Amino acid sequence: MSIPISDKPLRWGILSTAGIARKNWQAIRNSGNGIVAAVASRDEAKGAQFIAECQADAAFPDAPRAIGSYAEIIAAPDIDAVYIPLPTGVRKEWVIKAAQAGKHVMCEKPCAPSLADLEEMVAACRAAGVQFMDGIMYMHSDRLPALRAVLDDGESIGQMRRIACGFSFCAPDDFLKGNIRMHSGLEPQGCLGDLGWYTIRFALFATGYQMPARVRATMLDQLDQLGRADSPDAVPVEFSAELFFPGGVSATFYNSFQTEHQQWAHISGTKGSLLVSDFVLPYCGSELEFTVSNAHFDVANTRFVMERHDRRHAVREYSNNHENAQETKLFRRFADLALSGTPDNFWPDAALKTQKIMDACLLSARQGGTAIEIA
Fold this sequence. Notes:
This protein is α/β, with parallel strands linked by helices. It has 11 helices and 17 strands. The strands form 3 sheets. It has a 9-stranded mixed β-sheet with strand order 16-13-12-11-7-10-9-8-17. Strand 1, helix 1 (19-31) and strand 2 form a beta-alpha-beta unit. Helix 5 packs antiparallel against helix 11 (346-366). The longest helix has 21 residues, at 346-366. It starts with 9 loop residues before the first strand and ends with a strand.
């Protein structure tokens, strides 16, 4: 697939050769308004191999160069923005350094080990006048405006009362023993950070980014030092939480490295309900869908009848690796903002809200499910 690149594209640098960077390499290539100019790795040969493999699958006209240090790529004059998929535990330093160098920042999620850290990161970006955005791809899908229209029409759902989300995968034994997401120094929030960032953000989206008044969470399971000797502390591997919003809306979410692939979101209201079966990573195809249900229960003497009344809503959007996919739209939108010179504060604000809720949920779980008030 050959996609024209604009005359003045956003020039990206990628910090690290993390697996997710391969997917986003292609998203940048498909965006039409961005190019990967360089990839930094502490092992320059590893960076060169990463570039060669990605070029073989989704080539830029000019191959990016490999750089042997993160500091060098941040200082490079031909880099406008950096994508940072480094482990959460070491990300803060490089986000701040990138901002201070005048680089726009796309930050993988979870953004930081704590709200205090993220506040410093966002403050540095705002002081430098650069765009900060987290890498939640579904936020840029055409499906979200369609969901918003249904939630706001007053009839399909009625008054919203309940939000429920689940996002999990069943990790193999080598993941639990060796992946960075199971090391508290690198990914201290475990499944809550890796998966809960998405479920929390969906609840925020559904409520119009209203913050909950309080949260209560349960650590269903965690991997301690007995299971992972090199990890300084225990890491969540199965987690659930309840969020309580002003006005009577509640939300629940479940995240796990111990149950197989699921990524559903369900919203219940006074007139109906809405189900998205693949809200994070759309199932393969050319349409993204969701279902609105307005079941009717009829009683006539001895006859009790529950009638199904479902309506399928769909948008024309490819699921992955396409110029119309949500991954591409994420990087295209970011580049538009960065090239405009006018950062959009919505994105760092949404990240801060997500982090604040996540921190409160983790605190609640570690205190045995104590309710945590959110100011």
